[in-house]
Specification:
This protein is an alpha/beta fold and 187 residues long. 28% of the residues lie in helices and 44% in strands. It has a domain of 126 residues: Double Stranded RNA Binding Domain (2-Layer Sandwich). The longest helix has 22 residues. 15% of the residues are buried.
Length: 187
């Protein structure tokens, strides 16, 4: 038997492992939450010690904005802010929305080449484009200076997997809120 033909199954296994690893790396790279913030320049954030919630809403079915608000309260307390009903320094608004993220499509291809004779070969190739649409959550937090009613800070967490909003994944959602709210006050 031709030694070149004997190595074909080994080539297939190596190629299959390579493509599987590449696909796993692509999928992992697309799964991270993105955190953003914007704030009013020149604002002195050092005098703000108390806050209250002005509003919180969620358009994701089964997700309680009040439950997420309680987790945010825990994070804000760890940052030294106290929640108060009377004369707060800051007013917080939170909106939780979902969207379908349309990422670039992932291409998956397979190619086979067989050597024949001394100089000839036969090639066969194919490809499949797989769209990368997924539903994800977005958390937007607005902080308003209560005495002036001016928006002074906005933070957002985008591409939050919807599984993080379930009761069984409270720890993951708490981590998202920690990263989001730890951006306040801006440094």
């Amino acid at each position: 038997m031709n030694p070149q033909l004997a190595s074909i199954p080994t080539m297939f296994r190596s190629l299959w492992r390579f493509w599987l690893l590449a696909l796993v790396l692509i999928m992992c790279g697309c799964a991270s939450t993105k955190y953003n913030q914007d704030f009013k320049p020149g604002t002195d954030f050092s005098g703000h010690k108390t806050y209250n919630w002005r509003g919180a809403s969620s358009d994701i079915p089964g997700v309680s904005a009040q439950q997420i608000q309680r987790q945010a309260d825990t994070q804000l307390a760890s940052q030294g802010l106290s929640r108060t009903e009377s004369n707060p320094d800051l007013l917080f608004d939170m909106k939780i929305v979902s969207r379908i993220s349309t990422g670039s499509s992932t291409g998956l291809g397979l190619s086979i080449g067989l050597p024949l004779g001394r100089h000839g070969s036969i090639g066969l190739g194919g490809g499949k484009s797989m769209p990368n649409d997924k539903q994800e959550g977005i958390i937007i937090v607005d902080i308003t200076d209560a005495p002036t009613n001016n928006l002074i800070w906005r933070g957002s967490a985008e591409a939050v997997p919807l599984q993080h909003f379930s009761l069984s994944n409270e720890a993951k959602l708490a981590e998202v809120l920690r990263k989001l709210l730890s951006q306040y006050p801006p440094k």
